[in-house]
Amino acid sequence: MERINRKGLVLLGCGKMGSAMLAGWLARGVEPGAVWIIDPKPSDWLRAQGVHLNAELPTDPAVVVVAVKPQMMGDALPALQSFGNGATLFLSVAAGTPISAFAAALGAQTPIVRAMPNTPAAVGRGITAIVANDPAGADGLALAEALLSAVGQVVRLEDESQMDAVTAVSGSGPAYVFHLIETLAAAGEAEGLAPELALQLARATVAGAGALAENADDSPAQLRINVTSPNGTTAAALEVLMDEREGFPALLRLAVAAAANRSRELGQ
Ligand SMILES: NC(=O)C1=CN([C@@H]2O[C@H](COP(=O)(O)OP(=O)(O)OC[C@H]3O[C@@H](n4cnc5c(N)ncnc54)[C@H](O)[C@@H]3O)[C@@H](O)[C@H]2O)C=CC1
Ligand SMILES: O=C(O)[C@@H]1CCC=N1
User: Which residues does the UniProt record annotate as the domain Pyrroline-5-carboxylate reductase dimerisation (predicted)?
Assistant: First the structure.
């Protein structure tokens, strides 16, 4: 973070993802005075952080982080063109937008890292996949990894083409899990539980199972088997859920494919 504090970090777009990352950086020792935010609608939280807000930018920042919606990229990038083709690293978390789109807008020699984080970053439990172009090199990847590891795990991809599948699994994945909590609670209500109790049970079950899956030596499959008594209640439920044509596997396969396809469309 020393290089950031010396040369500065510019963050374009400080909504859900931008705020989660900024909170992690500030907690890791990035000084508020080294951060410049560009966002037309800053939140109250952001205003209280002591960062430069929509102010004149430093001439040679260490990194420009791009966290606007892919659809806003065309409007937003021209303001950053002066940082292209130089030493400034561009780090984008935008879904779908390929490295080639940034290189076209900013110059072919611009160091660019494309990343896909997820919202558990807000509690330091995210996972981010990263991939870089040649001008970014090992140094750019290391800086991106240092920044993103402030909000969780980081994995490096071998090829940018993996990004659509990554987006569909871990980028969008938290939404599938939140929906699981919602629908598990609703099913509990349908079995006669009060709404608050059903939600408490569903939320704690998903959080607890997630923690167990993360920390146990057993595979998720073994952990599932550990819950399943012969001819018991879990076996009855899994017979429905694991149905090959209509169960979870087929449904998630379709959902993840839809997300990956949308990611590819965004990149057109
Ligand atoms: N929300 C998520 O789960 C994830 C989002 N992403 C990516 O992160 C990016 C941001 O998404 P969110 O934070 O969810 O969106 P958001 O809507 O919460 O934040 C976007 C921010 O950009 C600002 N903005 C709009 N136009 C701008 C402009 N011209 N210049 C500067 N700032 C501008 C908005 O005021 C807003 O604060 C997207 O590209 C998305 O694909 C990536 C992984 C996960
Ligand atoms: O829904 C989206 O497009 C973004 C990317 C991954 C999660 N949210």
Answer: 160-266
